[in-house]
Amino acid sequence: xxxxxxxxxxxxxxxxxxxxxxxxxxxxxxxxxxxxxxxxxxxxxxxxxxxxxxxxxxxxxxxxxxxxxxxxxxxxxxxxxxxxxxxxxxxxxxxxxxxxxxxxxxxxxxxxxxxxxxxxxxxxxxxxxxxxxxxxxxxxxxxxxxxxxxxxxxxxxxxxxxxxxxxxxxxxxxxxxxxxxxxxxxxxxxxxxxxxxxxxxxxxxxxxxxxxxxxxxxxxxxxxxxxxxxxxxxxxxxxxxxxxxxxxxxxxxxxxxxxxxxxxxxxxxxxxxxxxxxxxxxxxxxxxxxxxxxxxxxxxxxxxxxxxxxxxxxxxxxxxxxxxxxxxxxxxxxxxxxxxxxxxxxxxxxxxxxxxxxxxxxxxxxxxxxxxxxxxxxxxxxxxxxxxxxxxxxxxxxxxxxxxxxxxxxxxxxxxxxxxxxxxxxxxxxxxxxxxxxxxxxxxxxxxxxxxxxxxxxxxxxxxxxxxxxxxxxxxxxxxxxxxxxxxxxxxxxxxxxxxxxxxxxxxxxxxxxxxx
Length: 517
Hints:
The protein is mostly helical. It folds into two domains: about 5-200, GPCR, family 2, extracellular hormone receptor domain (Hormone receptor fold, Irregular); about 205-505, Rhopdopsin 7-helix transmembrane proteins. The chain has 16 helices and six strands. It has helices spanning about 5-20, 20-30, 45-60, 95-105, 110-130, 135-140, 205-235, 240-275, 280-285, 290-320, 330-355, 370-395, 405-420, 440-465, 470-485, 500-505, and strands at about 70-75, 80-85, 145-150, 155, 160-165, 180-185. The strands form three sheets. A two-stranded antiparallel ribbon has the order 1-2. The chain is elongated.
């Protein structure tokens, strides 16, 4: 044990004695209880039991397995656990033991959580030593005594009652839940504790399973509804304009992201949640294929946000240029591809170096690496919002003064596209940052709303840009009439149909019928 650690521990005891002489004398006699250990122990012996319990119950060992334990070592006459055939105690202040434990656990994050658990056990004992007194002993003889159960601290509890505790963050293998969950321990009528604490309610398994399953289902429905639209965009060669190419790129990126998210959640996340042996799950095995899958998912998601921004930029440039022809989008295409590549590549490189575990799905070391990609997405959403706001401003201040037919058509087109602002992802700003709350129901609602917005995006794009688009309907009509000799009803042009080529004085990729006004 280091000199500084000893000094800290003895200082705490001196403070206890100085604060309440009677209390500390009684405390020294009473000591601290560990789980079902038969007698109370002084802090020096209890600390070793506390740290061993934290290590034993973590069950997150590396390939070498758990450190062999010998229970015959003694401290102040009390048996305590130590490393097998060695006098090396389970002490968080012993550098050699910390090194051994860190090497036996899966990662540095688990070692840090072990340290947190050890500290919590010592705080539990010190709290009991400071609060215990002979008067309390006589008054509470029938109560269940304060103890450390290996993971959590429990205070004195009346008989025939169930005590409620707060699930500590270090019991979770990955990131702990943002909301506070509860654990339970039963105090029997004879004033003795149940040996086992009920930590089942600390698990988010059922909530995780339900929300991830919901996400998969809604993405599957959305993708199935959007696939025919994507086929139409690729098969209708007659429609060759910038707007349709942008719609096609956006829908392709959304469907690719949906498919990759479905694969990742089905093969990695739900596999881990439903696995009976967590050590054999794909998430823990951290195979190359699941890391590649996660990287592709990140790339596709970044592509979706870049494509949404390209839609907004095209709309803004079209309006800004007004009667000067179609905007040159090539520089924006290059910028979008570069942003997707750079941010995704940076995330892959940093994650592979600093968090190369759990299929790159869990930020086990609390490094917040997700902000590498999230910063790009939030910035693009802000750009979209600013551009769409400027479109409305220009419409109100400038184009309203021009009365010729071409400008009227442009204004109708832009107004229709502004209505489609949700397709550009502006609504994602409301769910971009997860709210910090202790309410698990509120957290679950947030995820359902966020997943619904993400899942419905493909359906909205398919409906508004394809199925309800009169230009697409007209192209389909022409194609079917020429191929099968059918005579179909002529659709009327709607606001959703783009007239940008006409506005720029250029011929469309297929002839408009004069009846379409």
